[in-house]
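Researcher: Here's a chain I'd like modeled. Treat it as a single chain, no partners, no ligands.
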Amino acid sequence: MSKLLIITQVYENYGSAEKPHWKAKGSSDYVVKNFNGNYSKALAVVNAVRSQIEQDNEYLHEYIIGWDIEADDYLTEDERLQLKYEGKIVYPAKELAL
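Model: Modeled as a single isolated chain. Structure tokens:
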């Protein structure tokens, strides 16, 4: 088994709806655990969960910028840093259900 890792880019509006001022605010990691499939199935799953992830309103944009199939024990960069500096993972990647 594997996990499907989905990565997003987040932008926040520091202006108003009338005069937006968009700033990149990092990214988020999402995972679909117990993934068993190939590229085509992964693409279908990404498209199926897109509505659970992406946002587009006058104050926040979040959209998918990439995805990959990873081993079950794969840790995101954020999870690895939490382990390194905190000794535990307090904020794991967000898990999505199909």
